[in-house]
Amino acid sequence: MSGRGHKAILPPPDFQATQRIAEQGVQVTVINKEGFARVFDFVTMPVPEPMQRSLAQAFAEQSLNWNSHASGESYWQALRAFARFLNTQDHPAPDLDGLTAATLRLWRNNHKNTPGGREALAKIRTLLQRDPRLTYGPVAEELARRALRDATSFEQQSYKVSDRELVVKAAERQFRSALLRIRANSALLSRFRSGGLEEGSGDWQLGQVLEHIAETGDVARPDGMDRRPPDAKLLGGRHRELTWGRLFLSRQELTALAVLMTDQYGWNLSVFDRLTVPTTVPSAGSTTTVTYNVLVEKRRLGAGRWFVEENYTDSGVGSAGRLITQALEATQHGRALAARLAPPGIDLLMVARQFHTRAVDSDLDRPRPVGPLCFGVSKSDGTLWARSHNIGSPFQRARRTTVAREGKPLQHSRGTHESVYVLPDKNVQKAAEAVIAAGAQDAVRQAQDLTFRARLTVAADPDHQETATADCADETSSPWPTSGGECGADFLLCLACDNARVHSGHHARLALLHEQLSSMRSVWPEQLWRKRWDDSFTRLVDLRTKVNEGTWDAALTRVTDRDRAIIDHLLKGEFAP
Fold first, then answer.
1. Distance between CA 367 and CA 353 in Å, rounded?
2. Close Cβ partners of 245 (under 8 Å, ≥ 6 residues apart)
């Protein structure tokens, strides 16, 4: 068993997002998935009190869709920008029902040209549409206008092959160096624990130090302070790689691992904060491989679906699961220490040792530190990693690159895959040029093929769509599609399409069409007739032969008024596909 498998998992049944509006009506408390509360005080908004209350009500209603403080913060910042804008107007509206379409149009024009501005437009639009007073009239019409995405922004493009290689190689160098360091020290610690070292030897003394590091997360230091350790000479110095780094990843090394995982699996940055230790499942027919079952959290899915199962098999170097095996090895001591220090139930994979053990993370959406350990990868970790390697923030672009490479949705819907990841991406567009050109050439060749290409059937299929000349089995796979994905072919081209079906019910109408085209040939200028009708006439001649000439000619006796009307409209060009 290898590659990628998906399965939706329900969230813990005891979780319920809770939001409330304070009695005074201008404070909204948002409680995130972890149970931490954050209060948003609308008294600070520079707008009249009635509008403060209306904005608080819309904010509270929208918050029922959130499970993190980050969502609330993003809407809060958009509201602050909107309130400041309203406050600068000559005659600010006292409440939302006083807003005018002209005011909203000015707000839109002021913010539509920057990514942050467009994000604010979208959020304010969502909130204002919750107010029942703004559901009709010119204001509602202005709110109905969507903020257009910037499809060409740098962060919305996948990496070119050469750029991706730079990012991946930088991450590989850093993580592999850390993995080899931890592997060597883990082997020495294992020998010490098993009694395989000569007591009093240098390795035995180092083993004692490693045991202390494994148990506490650090070397012994005078008075517990971050001073030069007494074993510095034995360790070779006091740098982190020579002290606690012998058994633990640093935050930057953990970030490098996350970059590699994003490149390999297409995971979002937020996934790493809650990524639990994978379980193993049996690998069919093999005892030398291991398959990991990974729970990937999808926080934006909503409706109670918060996890997706993915399976990856480690069958050797280059296999999908090898990176997970290495991640388990590199984090083994961090996870063991967390199990001793943390409350029961914490089983996170992505664990690192903090450089400053007294540092406090104010982001209550992220896992809380445990002793000297921290979990997951923050945005600031990604920014710092990118800056240290002189590259742009890697996670969004790396994920886009992986999605483009896989050619299918990864932890998102098909619609999101097409509209967000595929269609706006310049590298995808460039790679598709040859495919599109080849498809266009095939369509031209098919149109120039003057034989009857449709399929002859005995009777009509109720699942097929009737056209003027045949029945269509699948208009979504037309050789001549429109920009909307529908068939854009002339009805006469149905006879040149593999999706078309012709049965005996069509014979009379097509025989009439053949007869009419033959009659028109005697009255139309020859060059004009050939240009307009020769291809279709030739296909009808080929069809007449395939049906049987006698059967074809006899069908003329069954021509109905409806057949005559359809052919008349078709020849006059009054039918549009």
1. 14
2. 178, 181, 239, 353
**What is the distance between the terminal CA atoms of the chain, rounded to a whole angstrom?**
47
Please say whether the beta carbons of 496 and 544 come within 8 A: no
- φ and ψ of 256, to 5 deg: -60, -40
User: d(Cα 274, Cα 189) in Å, to the nearest integer?
Assistant: 29
* Residue from 524, 528, 547, 465 nearest 500 by CA: 465
Look at residue 405 in the predicted model and tell me its pLDDT.
55
Of 419, 506, 522, 425, the closest CA to residue 471 belongs to 506
Instruction: Give bridge partners of residue 274 from the DSSP assignment.
Output: none
Give the rounded distance of the alpha carbon of 119 from its chain centre: 17
Quote the pTM value.
Answer: 0.58
Could you tell me which of 287, 548, 270 has the C-alpha nearest to residue 411? 270
Look at the block and give the residue holding tokens 């190689």.
Answer: 169
- The CB density around residue 252, as the number of other CB atoms within 10 Å, is 18
Number of Cβ atoms within 10 Å of the Cβ of 243: 22
Q: What is the pLDDT of residue 557?
A: 92
Q: Are strands 18-21 and 307-314 parallel, antiparallel or unpaired?
A: unpaired
pLDDT, tens digit, for every residue of 487-513? 777 788 888 888 889 998 999 999 999
Tokens 């009419």 identify what position? 516
Instruction: List the structure tokens of 223.
Output: 């008075």
- Site of tokens 């600068």: 88
> For residue range 164-218, what is the model confidence (pLDDT) as tens digits?
778 889 889 999 999 999 999 999 999 999 998 888 888 899 999 999 999 988 8
Cα angle 107-379-156, degrees, rounded to a multiple of 5: 55
Q: What does the alpha-carbon distance between residue 277 and residue 533 come to, in Å, rounded to a whole number? A: 68
Q: What are the angstrom distances between the C-alpha of 196 and each of 186, 423, 542?
A: 13, 60, 88
Alpha-carbon distance of 386 to 364, in angstroms, equals 24
Radius of gyration of the CA atoms of the chain, in A:
34
**Which of 487-516 are b and which e, b meaning 16 or more Cβ less than 10 Å from the residue's Cβ?**
bbbbbbbbbbbebbbbbeebbbbbbbbbeb
Residue written as tokens 């409680």? 31
Q: Percentage of residues in the chain with pLDDT exceeding 90?
A: 25
Say how many residues make up the chain. 577
**Going by C-beta distance under 8 Å and a sequence separation of 6 or more, which residues neighbour residue 107?**
82, 85, 121, 124
Residue 325's beta-bridge partner residues?
A: none
Instruction: Identify residue 344 by its one-letter amino acid code.
Output: P
Beta bridge partners of 361: none
Buried b (16+ CB within 10 A) or exposed e, 190-217: eebeeeebeeeeeebbbbbbbebbbebb
The 8-class DSSP code of residue 481 comes to B
Q: Which residues of the chain are modeled with pLDDT < 70? A: 1-25, 147-163, 222-230, 282-287, 298-306, 345, 356-362, 392-393, 395-451, 482-486, 574-577
